[in-house]
Amino acid sequence: SQKAIRSYEEAFTPLDVESLKNTYFFLGEKAFSEILKEEKLTNHSYKQLATVLKKEGKKNIVLYTNKEKSTESVLKFLKKYEKREDLKFTILHGGNPFFPWPKKKNVKVLFSFSPTEASKKALLLSLIGKYGTNPIPAANLIFERKEKPEKPENGTNP
Length: 158
Description:
Layout: E1 6-7, H1 17-20, E2 23-26, H2 30-38, H3 49-54, E3 59-65, H4 68-81, E4 87-94, E5 107-112, H5 117-127
Parallel strand pairs: 2-3, 3-4, 4-5
Antiparallel strand pairs: 1-5
């Protein structure tokens, strides 16, 4: 559901109408294509990605990952373009969030911790502001380490 969508590191403000004009979706999944079509937005083929990246002007590139292989491919791809200030990347990620996500100003990640159809749709609808313009809260992915119990002075276990 939409309430489970979280952002990596910091809150994420959904895209507004103006931002959507410069946004290119490369999502590949049928669930996304249906929503984009309803919203009169285009879901581009991955084959078109190189052409879009060569175009002049600021762009927001939206990609989807949900498995280790697709996530690793996207992370490798992002390294190639991390210095391009004219590009912003938004990754929609369904499933296990524990990957080495880049901590770059031009890379944002939205999480759904479930790869279901409903969760995929909630990711995209959250991104494009269909649930409102309130920022999507950051995920708290930091696990607290428990203190090791102190050893008793006599060396025996408690």
